[in-house]
Amino acid sequence: MAELLNEPDADARDLEFLEDQINSYNIAVTGIREWYPLAIFVRENGAIVAGVAGGMWGGYLEIQNLWVRDDLRGQGLGRRLLLAAEDEARARGCTQVLLDTHDFQAPGFYQKHGYEIFGTFEGIGGRFNRYYLRKTLATP
């Protein structure tokens, strides 16, 4: 009989297996095979000081992480990373971008760059919100 096991320290290979199964199902149902990773970094002496990462599938880019080291914020690196990600998405034929952020992170930053909130998950820790944002990419 199959066992249900709680494995908070699961092996990375097991997590990868799970993701592969979901991706295989998605491909089988949609017929969309093309997936392109996104990883753009700003490095200083080889060390990452800022970056954006995500992936493109089905005509959209999902930004999973965008980060700038604290002492470099406010200098335009986040904007440059976001624009570079959008340019890469356009080059791959994407017409939309999807991302999420918390209210203590950067919703205003994304809204300033044309993203709109389409969903809110309220009450994280009793006082924080998570926002889901999207943007339709203009063609060059």
Automatic annotation (TrEMBL):
Pfam families in alphabetical order: Acetyltransf_1 (PF00583)
SUPFAM superfamilies: Acyl-CoA N-acyltransferases (Nat) (SSF55729)
Gene3D superfamilies named in the record: 3.40.630.30
Keyword entries, A-Z: Acyltransferase, Transferase
InterPro entries reported in the protein's UniProt record: Acyl_CoA_acyltransferase, Bact_Acetyltransf, GNAT_dom
Sequence ranges assigned to domain N-acetyltransferase in this UniProt record: 5-138
A GO term for molecular function: acyltransferase activity, transferring groups other than amino-acyl groups
Domain of life according to the entry: Bacteria
PROSITE patterns to which the protein is assigned, alphabetical: GNAT
UniProt name for this protein: N-acetyltransferase domain-containing protein
Species assigned in the record: Kouleothrix aurantiaca
